[in-house]
Amino acid sequence: MIHRLSIQTRLLFHRNIFAQMGLLCAFWIGGEVITWALNLPIPGAIIGMVLALLALASHKLSILSMKRGADWLIAEMLLFFVPAVLALLNHKEFIGLLGIKILVVILGGTFVVMSITALTIDLCYRWMLMRHVKH
Fold first, then answer.
1. What pTM did the predictor assign?
2. Chief subcellular site (predicted)?
3. How many other CB atoms sit within 10 Å of the CB of residue 131?
4. What is the largest CA-CA distance in the chain?
């Protein structure tokens, strides 16, 4: 893909943050098109990430062609949560006792899921060790 392009085009992707973000968006849109065309139950963004991973793994795309754009998007991730914060300001009841109750439920649920996951991994690890010792 990019390795066949001219040196100027490769340098554009390596140096220009907007070109890199455009490339990331192209993978995302490509994934959305594939999801729509094949009527897949998988989000297009996931398909786009798989496409980007395949391009990187096959060395048709350099990590330098996406790194700065991806770093910027991660650094500015808070911008994507602004609508959620504004919705919170419109519903003041979430800031009081109801919000504390919801927070406790979310944190408790997260703790339970993490604990069960850790316990499951520990039990599987012990089972594999015991099975390995027997053979």
1. 0.54
2. membrane
3. 9
4. 63
